[in-house]
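Most newcomers find our protein records easier to grasp once they have seen one. A learned vocabulary of local backbone shapes supplies the integers on the structure line. Here is such a record, shown just as it appears in the course material:
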Amino acid sequence: MKTFWVDRDHDRYRQRVHTGVGLFAEALGDIAPVSFACAAWILATPPVLDPGYVRWHRRVLTATCSRNPFDGGLTARVELVSPLPAELTTNRSWWRDRGWRGWPELFGQFVQPADRDLSRHPHLRATLLVEAPLPLDGLPVAPERTDSAEDIAAAAERAVTVLVRDLGDLVGPVLQQLDTDRAIT
């Protein structure tokens, strides 16, 4: 099962890195790869690049990476669409014929309900929040200067590839379990 993957349109991502090179300013020359990797991730994902250079499983709503203020490490934050908890599905007396709706889908992708739908029906949508440290192994060291846009773009692509792998390793088993347990209600 694909959890996170790179859309191999390098030109589109490289162009975004070139126009967003200022986002890397604080990270350049830093021996720790965290800030650089976070900037590369921001430029590779929606809403900055839409459709994203990084794509993800239909249950992933958001996926961000940030520097942990405690130790300077890399922290992932991934929000996933989830089925309702068992406590809400074993007995549906709480529904009281109100016409509750769950996660709407558009072309197989989970989406937020439209304002029109919210004006007509109550919605109850469950999510899971994954927050976890990611390893720094394999992340490139940030280039020294901004005048080497190609070096920055190549390092950014490498950072994104490593983050995709590590996020897939982290979240993949959770998504696989969610997909095999039961359908969304």
